[in-house]
Amino acid sequence: MINLGIIGTNWITDQFVQAALETGRYELAAVYSRKLATAQKFGEKYGDVEYATDLETFFKLAHVDTVYIASPNSLHFEQAKQAIEAGKNVIVEKPAFSTPKEMDTIIELVNQKRVFFFEAARNIHEQAFKKIDDFLPLKDRIIGADFSFMKYSSRYDLVLAGEEPNIFSPHFSGGALVDLGVYPIYAAVAWFGMPKESLYFGRLLPTGVDGMGTGVLRYEDFDVTIRTGKIGDSYQPSEIYFDFGTLTLDAINSISEATFHNREAGRSEKMAIHALENPMVEEARDFANVIEHPDDKNLGLLYEEWVELARNVNQVVYDMRKNAGVVFDADEK
Predict the structure, then answer these.
(1) 213: three-class secondary structure by DSSP
(2) What is the pTM of this model?
(3) What pLDDT score does 179 carry?
(4) Which residues contact 81 (CB under 8 A, 6 or more apart)?
(5) Residues linked to residue 228 through DSSP beta bridges, in sequence order
(6) What residues contact residue 72 under an 8 Å CB cut-off, 6+ apart?
(7) How far apart are CA 48 and CA 193, in angstroms?
(8) How far apart are CA 102 and CA 175, in angstroms?
(9) Burial track 69-88 (b if 16+ CB lie within 10 A, e otherwise)
């Protein structure tokens, strides 16, 4: 059984904990929060849980072997580094780290300490995502793609009122691209590989980060358009274009419907896809497989693929962010 400790007590942490418990492979062992009352409010429904209000105490908890980190983006690196140095596996909510330098440091450290690092990019672990991967034809038949994920954040109301909430602050590595934009970028890099060029045209807010924007990932023979945002809503599907038809996806962040419109055959066909109620169950199960079977060579190769994918996505996001002129405090470190 994996003994899980968590940093961050928001809704996404709760969803991950529920997903982890649903797999039957984890127990929630400890909760960290700067305020004891906040930690207790989060953990009380999960039974016998230990609480900590300082990270030094939290990372010294010997029975905790894996830490899930869902704090503000800019805090991920130092918290992950401390956890790894304490011998813990880390599951870091996306975006895992702010810069390629931070990503490289963590990957080198987990290799030294012989523990695991996972970026919680849940969409690539869903069976629906893998089914699309299996369906894709040879790349020479792909002529383009259009991926969109844009959802209004209530925190934008604070920006309009002249405030600077964490998710819209360069001090906390915020903005639309590094949050919702990670999903379509993960899809593109997982399915098509690293682009030759990564461009992003962001609409910057008074806080200095992007509220929405359009990106272009340029490949040898086709382009992928990325649309993302946190100051409006998008209801358009995502699409992959082939020289013989079009594949439509209802949502790039969590696919529940996919239809292939075969122009050559003159027909459209829905793919058989079953989406789980909690979309984080599959990633929790995948992480558990690796943690519980560290000597399995096939799982080891799969883990290395995830790490390299996380590294590549981080680089693409960084390049796109720089292209748009979005500068984080983390860039100066």
Answers:
(1) strand
(2) 0.96
(3) 97
(4) 105, 106, 109
(5) 149, 213
(6) 166, 167, 172, 173, 174
(7) 44
(8) 18
(9) bbbbbbbbbebbbbbbebeb
